[in-house]
What does this fold into?
Amino acid sequence: MSSFSCWVLPAALLALLCCPGSAEKAFEVYIWPEQVVVESSGSLEVNCSTNCAQPESGGLETSLTKTLLASQARWCQFLISDISQDTVLLCHFTCLGEQQSKNATISVYHPPKQVILKLQPTSVTMGNPFTIECSVPGVAPLESLTLTLLRGRETLYNQTFEGATVVPQEAVATLNVTAHREDGHHNFSCQAELDLRSRGGGIVRSISEPQVLEVYGGETEAQRG
It folds into this structure.
């Protein structure tokens, strides 16, 4: 795990600058953000700081690639690059011989960039079955994903997935239905929603291209006569 230290003052000067009673205040370390989601291969700026007036040392520990952007005695700002896996960052400072640290959690996600909707078959006689299939390749985390099958603005079906793996996977939702006359009057579509709020992020949405179903027949005997 690599370490990068903040700029600090010599110990002799530190002793002169410490104010009477300053040791009575609790020594704390802060890191921001504490919890965040980042798209795979993305980057993130992280701030590491302390309330100690003149810390003896400090820095940020991580196995990821980082660049020191700016620093002063009480804070450091880093750029974390090429984030490809979930990880924990460790911010640490030493004040009057005491060391404190604070962790930050980074979660990686793969957004639903491609949402594919298929109608099988694309033309059907009224009263016969057809299948609506929605697939999203390479999405993670899977347990945060919901696929919603739509006819116009009407929700026909939604599926929330399970599984804690962070490896990108294909998600598929399928619905078998019977063709009705009104099915030929609306577009079908699929919306993918990746809810990352529990991990410190937001909601990422994508929607498929609309598909049209051709519905034939269905005349009653009275209409034929």
Summary: Residues 7-23, 220-225 have pLDDT under 50 and may be disordered. The first strand starts at residue 2 and ends at 5. DSSP finds two helices and 19 strands in the chain.
